[in-house]
Amino acid sequence: MKESAARYLAQLDTADRQEPSESIELKKTHLTEMQKLEAIEKQMLASPDKQISLTDPGSRSMATSGRGSGVVGYNVQIAVDTEHHLIVHHEVTNVGSDRSQLSSTATAAKEVLGVEKLEAVADRSYFNGEEIKACDDAGITVTLPKPVTSGAKSAGRFGKQDFVYKPQRDVYLCPAGEKLTYRFTAEEHGQKLRRYWTDACHTCPIT
Hints:
Elements: H1 2-46, E1 60-63, E2 70-73, E3 75-81, E4 86-93, H2 102-113, E5 118-121, H3 129-137, E6 140-143, E7 164-166, E8 171-173, E9 179-188, E10 191-197
Parallel strand pairs: 5-6
Antiparallel strand pairs: 1-2, 3-4, 7-8, 8-9, 9-10
């Protein structure tokens, strides 16, 4: 019993002697980590977009199509000559969406090819009215599908694609055959939009 008690007391003495040293080392480690974090924070605040990447300095957090989702990386834009299948222009951006990239990419390709007119084909992710107009102003004819972004179908309503425009009479025909006539022109985001409607909706036989 005396030997066990003596051994136990000796262990307590050893623990008492080691604890301050371990505590000091822990505090030093914590202080070092805090200094590293403060340095990273200063670097982040000094960045124009208040972002830094510790693994790839050039990459940035980009929003993707999913709500609340994103990815840290790059968005590469490529223009290919359809005749020779050669890349004529490429650009690396930190913008997650392609919607604002159409006119800049197409214009750069037009300059590289040295042509006055250009026909460009893109996928639906590039659909943007302002970008399409900018291409048209630059002598670039764009062909691309229009995405269905309206929630009308899921809500049980007709979408824009269900209405047919009749240019000779400047009217739209709805699925029920009613005429939507021009009422006024509004301006949104620098574009003039013509507004059409009919008063027959509340008596529509197919709603």
